[in-house]
Amino acid sequence: MTALLATLYPWVKALHVIAVIAWMAGLLYLPRLFVYHSVAAPGSAQSETFKIMERRLLRGIMNPAMIAVFLLGGLLLATPGVVDWQAAWIYVKLVLVAGLTVLHHMMAGWRKAFAADQNRRSARFYRIANEVPTVLMIGIVIFVIVKPV
After folding, report:
1. How far is CA 52 from each of CA 58, 74, 78, 114, rounded to the nearest angstrom?
2. Cα–Cα separations (whole angstroms), residue 9 to 13, 16, 52
3. 112-126 per-position pLDDT tens digit
4. For tag attachment on the chain, is the N or C end more exposed, with fewer CB atoms within 10 Å?
5. pTM above 0.85, yes or no
6. Cβ distance 107 to 54 under 8 Å?
């Protein structure tokens, strides 16, 4: 099995990066939709359009991409020689990925509130929430590429 993982490593890594890009695109776009949705009148045509867009983005892109990130990332972690488990960077990176996962699930909850016309948060809240995935992503990239610890 380890020989197969080593052989497939470039493909698994490439697919992992593609999945990360798709997941990040959704994590950056969904809160932006929430910003606009939060100022639309509940029940309006505009609000109903946002509901469709948010559901399709979460279920059609973000959820599958997140699952792919975890499956492919797990394969990378299992590939011999890819991770030095004595180094701290991998643990920091995994904590930051856990943060993205928590944020993903929070966004899913916010989407459900919008779907039920029960949003209680302001556009400003979603503007701030829109910055969180960027900060986490910057940390992840630095810890994976630079490995400062």
Report:
1. 10, 32, 38, 11
2. 6, 10, 37
3. 999 999 999 999 999
4. N
5. yes
6. no
